[in-house]
Amino acid sequence: MKKIIAILFLATLLAQFDIEGRWHIVGYEDAVMYQFVDNEPFANAGNKYTIYSIDGHFDDLEGDMTGGTPHPYSIVDDVITIDYHFGNVVSYQMNFLCNEQVVELISDEYGIMTLFRENYDYSQCNQILDECFDFTNIDFGPCFMLLGVGFQNNQCNYISGCGWTNNGVDYTDYFFDSIEECEENCSQSQCQDGFVEINDMCFHSGDLSIIQEMIDNSYQSNIDLDCYNDSIYCGSPNPYMDSQDNWGWIAYDGVSYDMPGNENGIVEPLELGIQEWENGRLTSFMCGAYIYCQLSGPIPDNISDLTELEVFRVEGNYFSGTIPESICDLDINYDDYLAFDVSYNQLCGPYPDCINPEQEFWGQYDSECINLGDLNADNVINVLDIVQIVSLILNSEYEINGDYNEDGILNVIDVVQIISIILN
Q1: CA gap 34, 51 in Å, rounded
Q2: When comparing pLDDT for 203 and 128, which is higher?
């Protein structure tokens, strides 16, 4: 009786990682199939066969499209080891999904290969790996497209590249949507929820995400800075911020730290400018003149989420568009240009109420701006503009700044809309 129980227990244990059968390869569903044949009665081991097809139909092992010598395999716990001959032996961790109809073979050297059983509809499998995948040794190319958040170099990072596929493996499902989600799944962080541990310090993930948005907006602006002789300092954001010799630094709870770039080709939040953090919150962000961050694109609409920010200096960059009204919700002295300065960018009016364009050091490179309703270009929409648009209408003239509804005609409708702006 004991012998029977032992055999049944062994059979149950081996069945937990049952690879035997015919499997399609994701990405090559109609071209290649693997068939695992367990031919060892008292071990989880056998041979892996490769079957090829030119029309999506796969023969059995006796067919003409079964390729070459089979590859022996063995399974211990959740690891399958396959002998590809000539000294090439590879071990994969097996991760079974969707009632064992899908399996991911995960190798540190070769990445992830996903298989699904013959006659199974892979599109019905919505389960993804719930463990943390390490992207440290995977290169997605020299592009700046943000792919998502992943665990890399022992921490959660924003990862960029040319696409989600590497060496034929699609890693789309292994990225997280946010630093918070990555930290929840990957890190043994001592930080509180909503904070990210970097270099043994805790940083508010929301504050980091706004800096990241400024970086992303800069890359996406594709601004032409008329670079001279492929200068290593020329780009938006300044690519030199990613250098080991980066001149930026951060202060954390009153202690200053050099933050050299990691030279991965992408400027990351803590590499940008000069920053001060208190209790994990960003209190000072300096990317203005003589720091040369060279930021461009719009200022993030959610800039007011930096609730602890006391200094925001970004003068002399290339920010464009309008200044979001939410900037006035910051706890900053807007009249102190040493605490707040967004001048000499390419920002267009009308400006939020907290910004005084009459300040001594104010200015914008706004020659490309079109401020609808501000016909006399004084950055204020008032009765003087009404007088001017009425004069244009009476003389059958056209001025683009007066065409408030942008219908190509100056008429009473534009006058009514501008008056409404003034009254409100």
Answers
A1: 6
A2: 203
Q: How far does the chain reach from its first CA to its final CA, in angstroms?
A: 89
- Residue located via tokens 């012998």: 3
Between CA 138 and CA 393 the distance in angstroms is 63
CB burial readout 278-313, b (16+ within 10 A) else e: eebbbbbbbbbeebbbbbbbbbbeebbbbebbbbbb
pLDDT of residue 270: 93
Mean pLDDT of 134-149: 86
| pLDDT at position 293 | 93
Q: Each residue of 6-24: b (16+ CB within 10 Å) or e?
A: eeeeeeeebeebebeebbb
Q: Is 312 helix (H, G, I), strand (E, B) or coil?
A: strand
Rounded Cα distance, 329 and 314, in Å: 17
**pLDDT bracket for residue 2 (50, 70, 90):** very low
Q: Report domain extents, the chain.
A: 2-122, 227-348, 383-423
The pLDDT tens digits for 23-41 are 999 888 888 899 999 988 7
Angle at Cα 283 formed by Cα 188 and Cα 214, nearest 5°? 80
Domain 2-122 part of CATH 2.40.128.20: yes
* Contacting residues for 268 by C-beta, under 8 A, at least 6 apart: 157, 158, 212, 215, 242, 261, 262
The closest of 150, 116, 138, 109 to 22, measured between CA atoms, is 116
Rounded mean pLDDT, 282-303: 93
Helices and strands, number each (H, E), in the chain = 5, 23
- pTM score: 0.51
- pLDDT at residue 316, as a whole number: 94
Helices of type H across 284-401: 383-394
pLDDT, residue 11, reads 37
Q: How confident is the model at residue 17 (pLDDT cuts 50, 70, 90)?
A: low
Percent of residues in the chain assigned helix, strand, coil, to nearest 5: 20, 30, 50
The single-letter DSSP state of residue 263 is -
Q: How does strand 249-252 pair with strand 281-286?
A: unpaired
Residues in the chain: 424
**Torsion over CA of 303, 280, 174 and 88, rounded to 10 degrees?**
140
